Amino acid sequence: MLYLDLSMGAAGDMLAAALLGLLPDPAGFVEKLNGLGLPGVQFTLEKSVKCGIAGLHLAVAVHGQAEGHPHDHHHDHPHDHPGGSLAAIGHLVKDRLTLPEAVARDVLAVYGALAQAESQVHGVPVEEIHFHEVGTMDAVADVTAVCLLMHTLAPGEVYASPVHVGSGRVRCAHGILPVPAPATVLLLEGIPTYGGEIQGELCTPTGAALLRHFVGGFGSQPCMAVQAVSYGMGSKDFPAANCVRAILGPAVRTGNRVLSLSCNLDDMTPEEIGFAQEQLWQAGALEVYTTAVGMKKNRPGVLLTCLCRPEDGPALTQAMFRHTTTLGIRQAELRRVTLPRRQETAETPWGPVAVKVAGENAKAEYEDLARIARQTGLPLRQVRRDGGLP
CB burial class (10 A; 0-12, 13-18, 19+) of residue 342? Predict the structure, then answer.
């Protein structure tokens, strides 16, 4: 499991540096990056200290020129680059770079999300987008580095804290824009974010697109056994340490504690609520159920409740926000008492059937019963009775 602390936002270079620090040989991986074939790009790994914390900074130079502009408020914005269209980037990634196929797909998916956001902001078709803010070689380098690092680390599950986006104004190719930039706002749709007193663009469009692509859930750090921790530093200094912290380690199951997530709904159809329940099950819920409730203005409504392991809370919270219309989710940690369980196998005229046994209780697995009923055309109750099943 990988957990990203985004209390100072996210930019491509900071994410890449944070992930690099989790590797046993960061310098060797940077040599690998320099051998990918990115035209005119040179990666340099630098040590950096922010607020007394030691970390890494990944510097990118294009034809000898360091990334960033003098007017940047916080994270570096790319240089304008001729041919910075989605098609040109696709040609570069697929035909000129020596990347694993899965990594190339990730890079193009990130840029596809960026193109959609820029298209919506500027009101032009995706095909006509030229990435003033994100399409230059230094940004391509950052995205490629993060995608290759994720592929190398293969953390399985990726979670992150809510995203600190900063405040104030930022200068870009189109003029002075509010923070977060319009494309960043679109890319962070549905993701928990917050501002604050720090003046500057703490989350860039590139960082937002990478988070949307790789992070499965946002919230507090899940229960995990920390194996490695790393700090990816930004270039500017603030009162708070300007870094992304990356924590790597296996998830830890937390015994008999469960998390209850619930929300009230009065503007969804039964079909939509049923689909939301299905998505929660697929995201790892232990239990999902609905309760009829009365809501304000005497409206009949539905209370949707999901029980899950505490470490699965961020992913289930994100799924509930994504698939329902709720504006808020209540969370409560509960203790539960469970009987020891074991699974046995019962032989039937139609083959083996799994039986779950807990204490004095035993019950045949529904899926096995349903499979036999479909194959034989018998009622479910008859399969249970004739098979001598509990």
Answer: exposed
